[in-house]
Task: structure prediction
Amino acid sequence: MRAVHRLLTACLLFSAACAAEGYRCEFIDLPAYVVEGRPFTVKMQYATPPGQRVSLRCELKSTAHVVLAGARAEVTGEGVQILTLTAPERAAQGKLLLAGWMGEDWRESLCPIVNTPTIEVASEARARRLEAMQAAATTLRAKYIAACTPDGNVGIIGSVATDWPTDLVVDLADRLRQRKLGVSLVQPGEAVTGVLDPAVFDLVVVADARLLPVDALEALGRFANSGGNLMVLGGPPLRRALWPFQGKFLESDAYRLAVAEAVKPELWSDFEQGTGGEWRRATNDTAAASAAKPAA
Result:
């Protein structure tokens, strides 16, 4: 793995060394997530020397930097180009990367190759949940932006643990307000992408970094990658995720148990008892691939 990393680093350094003067590209307005099987667009800002027409390229890659798909457009001068790609199936790729460059061969890119942070590939069900969260985030953003002062805006994410001293958060908020900073107390369940944004907060303080909702962990990663300032208290930090279930936050084992107890199994077919429709063995090869799906 180290050898692969060294090779990739060497290739990127070689690419940067070969970049020609006057060529530039970068990603702008990246999607927070993409939905499996759906087309999505990315915006790329570019510049070329006067009169030069070249290929602007965007590659969709796995987190192992394997190219899965690509899009290109002929550009010249300066401007913004919108490119369309299709997200892979989530089962194959839970996260993806985008790489941008210019020219005909990435090893001889006319500009330094730019790579994005990882982007989540969401299922349809998760996309619906994320869209609902984004709708709620619009209202929350307005509330937190209103608390901003000319000296800055700080968001403090509270703790979900019962053993964390709540007066610590109150004391910290008071001290920051004394320095004429705007301060907002953000509930852990509200710490989502769209709320945690450098355009909203100059600094985000995680009051108890031991336990955080999984959506908050993802939002904090995007916040930091977008240039936001992050401070965490407590530890070990950002290692234990919590999952929402029926108004509570549960760690993974408790979450799985709660879901298993809440789900009522429904018998679809019992081959031994002959229920669920007629079934006949067609092969003695137990290793043969098989599949079943409801007919109606």
Observations:
- The CA atoms of residues 271 and 279 lie 7 Å apart.
- The two ends are 48 Å apart (CA to CA).
- The mean pLDDT is 81.
